[in-house]
Recover the amino acids of this structure.
């Protein structure tokens, strides 16, 4: 029943609005058509949660999931056509960092490919992402961290990729100190990286180190960021970020003899 997929895709498109709605509507509409033969369907309920192909997302989770992979698609195509190397970057992120499998992996790939086919720019997508998550700075910071993680997976970043990330930093209202710490984290090693993870320099005092650690460990606990609207599929990445903060603190404490 092709009409069912179009109806549900159109409903989701209206539900999300803007470029995210167009991308999600096309992707999930096609999935509904593919699933119609075996009796699967999508439906909504009174709390605003949509169940598409047996996966439930509330609106914030869907916006995060669609927005993240749509922006990554535009980042991957920053230099024109998406190269094989760029596709490997994204696939490595999906498989190694997010541990996506099965339907979640198919959703991510579908959104990535549909975003490439859409005329919406990275800037359009970043603007809509900010409007949805401007009250959750942790999610915006983590999204910039993801941009750097994907762009630097092969050890280099192009000028065009850097320009797009800089745009997101401006639109997301990321403080320069936080942006600098994220950027340094991907360009330094050893103890210097540990300080960058905590947003500090190597001349930070013991009190500053402990204060930064306590603040970050609360802000980036996976349950905390999930409650802000992060899609469940990104909880693995949030957990890695949480562990990274813990390990950075332990490294500095060991080096300085802090108890």
């Amino acid at each position: 029943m092709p009409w069912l997929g179009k109806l549900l895709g159109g409903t989701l498109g209206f539900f999300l609005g803007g470029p995210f709605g167009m991308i999600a509507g096309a992707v999930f509409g096609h999935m509904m058509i593919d699933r119609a033969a075996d009796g699967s369907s999508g439906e909504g309920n009174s709390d605003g949660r949509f169940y598409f192909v047996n996966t439930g997302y509330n609106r914030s989770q869907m916006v995060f999931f669609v927005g993240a992979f749509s922006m990554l698609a535009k980042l991957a195509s920053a230099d024109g056509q998406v190269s094989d190397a760029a596709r490997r970057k994204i696939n490595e992120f999906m498989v190694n960092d997010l541990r996506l499998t099965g339907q979640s992996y198919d959703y991510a790939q579908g959104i990535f490919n549909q975003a490439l086919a859409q005329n919406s720019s990275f800037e359009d997508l970043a603007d809509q992402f900010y409007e949805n998550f401007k009250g959750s700075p942790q999610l915006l910071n983590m999204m910039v961290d993801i941009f750097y993680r994907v762009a630097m997976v092969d050890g280099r970043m192009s000028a065009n990729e850097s320009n797009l990330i800089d745009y997101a930093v401006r639109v997301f209202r990321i403080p320069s100190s936080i942006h600098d710490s994220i950027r340094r984290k991907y360009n330094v090693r050893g103890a210097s990286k540990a300080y960058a993870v905590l947003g500090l320099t190597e001349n930070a005092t013991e009190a500053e180190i402990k204060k930064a650690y306590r603040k970050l460990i609360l802000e980036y606990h996976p349950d905390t960021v999930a409650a802000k609207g992060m899609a469940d599929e990104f909880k693995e990445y949030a957990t890695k970020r949480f562990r990274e903060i813990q390990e950075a603190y332990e490294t500095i404490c060991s080096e300085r003899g802090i108890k």
